Amino acid sequence: MTAIATAPIAARNDVRRFDAATLHAAAKFLTAEAKKSEISKGEHKIDNTLTIDIKGIVNKFADESYTPTVSIPIKATLALLLNRMGFQRDKAAALIVEVMTEALKADEKTDEALAATLKEIKQAEQRVADMTAALPKKTRKGKTTDKTTATLR
User: Fold this and answer.
1) Contact between 141 and 62 (Cβ < 8 Å)
2) 26: how many CB neighbours lie within 10 A of its CB?
3) ∠ CA(69), CA(58), CA(18), 5° rounding?
4) What confidence tens digit (pLDDT) does each residue in 85-121 have?
5) Which of 21, 39, 85, 131 is the 20 to 30 Å CA partner of 61?
6) Distance between the two ends of the chain, CA-based, in angstroms?
């Protein structure tokens, strides 16, 4: 990909003659190939021509609505919560630290201890799911899948 970015303008313009589906499949193939090799430290001069044969089907799905739970800023959310807790702020802060510590250590629990806790957690997780369902929705671009084969010549 760097070679394209540093190539002469004429070479960069040639990329536009391919449709988006072909470019998607080529990028996926080249990314997979790049992960298979390591580049040694240092500057590497490149002067190559790539020829890639690509065949198959690329499928683009419609954009979809989702609840952006992963992008909720945890620190800002906790700060807002503590700010609104009033006289219970200190107790709430201590409880938050306690449950965060417990969540971090959850992987260390034995199966029996975890199973006992999970029954209670399932109900709490459902409550959280109900709360997050009320958040404003965002739209993300539809998924792109491909069933292509590519070979370098």
Assistant:
1) no
2) 17
3) 110
4) 999 999 999 999 998 888 787 766 666 666 677 777 7
5) 131
6) 17
